[in-house]
Amino acid sequence: MCIIAERRALLDFKEGFTNDFNRLASWISEEEECCNWIGVGCDNTTSHVVMLDLGGMVITGEISSSLLELKHLSHLNLSSNNFHKIPNFIGSLSELTYLDLSDNSFTGIIPHQLGNLSRLFYLD
Fold first, then answer.
1. In this structure, are residues 24 and 47 in contact, taking their beta carbons and an 8 Å threshold?
2. Mean pLDDT lowest among 1-10, 14-23, 33-42
3. How far apart are CA 33 and CA 24, in angstroms?
4. Virtual CA dihedral for 88, 24, 123, 16, nearest 10 degrees?
5. Global pTM exceeds 0.85
């Protein structure tokens, strides 16, 4: 069963962007089991969200700080979308081992806070 605070965080995250092809149609508040949503993976024992795989979903907008509520997130794939800025808070997702931000529309500097991701073994 999905953790309520994490479901809320995912819905808040979705509010920060547009998804023109509606590939995240399963992400609705009425669907309580967020572990079944497209692109979401949960730990089978704890039900915490541990994976967010939204590569190639044609998402445009902001990467919301609501992701900070996903305290057990270890895999984050936001590749091949249309995000414009890498937010500083990404460096606070301390459980991340996999981070793919490739093939977006990023401008500006890469936040030095990414250096805080001590468990990271994959970065693209």
1. no
2. 14-23
3. 14
4. -10
5. yes
